[in-house]
Design goal:
- This protein is an alpha/beta fold.
- The chain has a single domain, classed as Spore Coat Polysaccharide Biosynthesis Protein SpsA, Chain A (Alpha-Beta Complex), CATH 3.90.550.
- The chain has eight helices and seven strands.
- The protein has a seven-stranded mixed sheet with strand order 3-2-1-4-6-5-7, with helices on both faces.
- Helix 2 runs parallel beside helix 3 and helix 2 crosses helix 5.
- The longest helix is centred in the N-terminal third of the chain and has 23 residues.
- It is globular and about 45 Å long.
- It starts with 19 loop residues before the first strand and ends in a 7-residue tail after the last helix.
- InterPro entries: Nucleotide-diphossugar_trans (IPR029044), Trfase_1_rSAM/seldom-assoc (IPR018641).
- It comes from Nocardioides kribbensis.
- This is DUF2064 domain-containing protein.
Length: about 240
């Protein structure tokens, strides 16, 4: 990444150059999100943590490019979610579409296709497991698209936390890639390169799946909704 922090795109920026943000997430419903974490802290509290993580992510995306260039591909209903009304308020101006597909790889392909159908420009896609993400990190992931087709950000657990694509339809290369495995990053990069795409790398981040993950992220980023939700009574 460049040592010079990128700046948020101004309103009226060239739509062929300014990225869109895509968040692929589950509605934070107890028992459906952060289940691995929930085995240690309880499913209700895990859903609270997931809601806070999603809210921090939505804010970072909005601050990076503005709500009119932000998309959410949602699995589930916010009506049933923890802090559903609060999340809906933060989605004002966003385009929200339901996730479609039998596997997560298919859902990712469809989510990117929905962004492509909404208009021109590259896309930066993240999930809801990295509340430490910032506008600078998101725009930094988009910057190498000037001379690469794709940018992949490794996660410490072997997955990836961000995928930026010059053409969202190039996400078709993800079809058939096993997700949520210790080799997902490497498998995804191999699939993109096999499709003829030049792939750059951006910053490594830590996904939050365990108590140790949450403690580590809060220590790095003590502000924000996630840190507030991760109270001293919860943290190890």
């Amino acid at each position: 990444m460049s040592s010079t922090a990128p700046t948020p795109y101004a309103a009226g920026a060239d739509p062929a150059a300014a990225p869109r943000m895509l968040v692929v997430a589950k509605a934070p419903v107890a028992g459906r999100v952060k289940t691995r974490l929930g085995t240690d802290i309880g499913m209700d509290l895990a859903a609270e943590i997931a809601a806070a993580s999603l809210l921090d992510t939505l804010v970072a995306c909005t601050d990076a490019v503005g709500p009119d260039r932000c998309h959410l591909s949602l699995d589930g209903e916010l009506l049933d979610a923890v802090h559903g009304e609060r999340i809906r308020r933060h989605l004002h101006g966003w385009q929200v579409t339901p996730q479609v597909g039998d596997g997560f790889d298919e859902r990712l392909v469809r989510a990117h296709a929905d962004v492509a159908a909404a208009g021109p420009g590259p896309v930066v896609q993240v999930g809801m497991d990295t509340p430490q993400v910032t506008p600078d990190l998101l725009l930094g992931a988009a910057a190498p698209l000037a001379d690469h087709h794709a940018v992949l950000g490794p996660a410490e657990d072997g997955g990836w936390w961000v995928l930026a694509l010059r053409d969202p339809l190039a996400a078709a290369a993800l079809r058939g890639v096993p997700m949520s495995t210790p080799t997902t990053h490497d498998d995804t990069r191999a699939a993109l390169e096999a499709a003829g795409l030049a792939v750059a790398t951006t910053a490594v981040l830590r996904d939050i799946d365990t108590v140790a993950d949450a403690d580590a992220v809060v220590a790095l980023v003590p502000g924000g909704r996630f840190a507030a939700a991760w109270s001293p009574e919860v943290a190890s």
